[in-house]
């Protein structure tokens, strides 16, 4: 059974990622982004898209870091946009949320779990 973001229990990457989405809300937007992208509705829509993708992750609580995941659930354009945002937010996260930064770095070192049986390609 797959749990929604607010029903998740435990300490998995998907749980922490969903739980900590609000922590990015207090960070100012990067000055390099255009006025059109700085629109709050744009970031809310992107956040909703990320939540939807996390809720549908085939790995569930054992989710690896997205950059190591064999299943790319984001659309290519959204994936590039998330990379841009993470490149900007990553260094700032160290000062605003040092414990989350350490957890995130440790999660990057975790081995990628095997794909669940029902999602493996048929032979």
UniProtKB/TrEMBL annotation:
Q: Per its UniProt entry, which superkingdom is the organism in?
A: Bacteria
Q: Which InterPro entries does this one have?
A: Uncharacterised_YgbA
Region described as Disordered: spans on this chain: 1-29
Record's compositionally biased regions (Basic and acidic residues) = 1-22
Please identify the protein, giving its name as recorded.
Nitrous oxide-stimulated promoter
